[in-house]
Amino acid sequence: MRAIRLIAENLRKLFAASPPSDPSLRMHSANITRGTILASSLEVADTGPARNKGLLNRDGLAPGEGLWIVPCQSVHTFFMRFPIDLVYIDGRKRVRKVRSAIGPGRISFCLTAQSVIELPAGTIQRTQTRRGDSLVIEAIESSESVV
Description:
alpha+beta; 35% strand; Jelly Rolls
């Protein structure tokens, strides 16, 4: 058990040093089928280092936050500290698969997905997001406030 904790700590230190692809870029995502907001502040992980880091070295996601990993067909939650919801989407932003409250130490995948949105646990249930729903993901204008 001590060895696993040491590996986890070393990974957190390694990924903490990885620069984000564009730390100022924020998006928002809405489920246009259900008329709900998935994330009002969505970070983008679109480089190798940013995708590898994912949500490691964080204690959680606040309501309205999320991480859009592009491209991505699989997610692991090894060494994470909190559960997350996963929304796998294809290139047309159609939901291919959802997974709720995935805890630490798990693996999930969807081979038909082009990307995945990682959200706070409970978001899928709150927004009633389902397979087949259509999403929109857009950049937040710099004058818009981020909640």
